[in-house]
Amino acid sequence: MAYTGALHEGESPWPLIHALARVAEQAGAERVRSGFQLRFMGPGDADWDGPRAYLRERGLDGVMRFLGTRSHAESLAEQRGADVLLILSAPPHDETIRGKSFEYMATGKPIFALLPEGSTQAEILEPSGLATIVPYGDVERSARVLAGYLESGVPVVRANWEYIKTFDRRNLAGALAAVLDGCVGTAGTG
What we know:
The structure is a single chain. The chain has 190 residues and is α/β, with parallel strands linked by helices. The protein has 2 domains: 2-159, Glycogen Phosphorylase B (Rossmann fold); 160-190. It is 47% helix and 14% strand. α1 crosses α7. The N and C termini lie far apart (55 Å).
């Protein structure tokens, strides 16, 4: 599972970390260590010492890797290589749309999204056919999703490519050009 991009207070991984610990309580730390690798790539002001210590205390050393800032090309490669992509967004960021959402959808890979209920980002991801969306902070539901990944493997998703392609830059540029053409066409008629 990979998270690429900036990681700040609004993207805290703590709910995911607590969920992972809950799965380890039920399935065993060894099983979680052998079944999960969480990789975080990107800049941020997150304090990783706390999560590392918390996981170490629960026998989950090495489950999370913090790769730091890398190039955009390396981030895209990380996305393509991941089994599941992770999006985190805490309240009050319910109107925030993370740019990684569009990159993630373009991969066609499953997305595990911990988001504010009813958030704009959830509304964008849901029709893609790729996202499992859990309310940010809901440790129990997050643990059930992670336990499902551990038990059954990577979820099979059916990408809604027609929907996803609407976010392609070429399609967006064409739509903007049509709007501008319309504006130019009506400029002298007022």
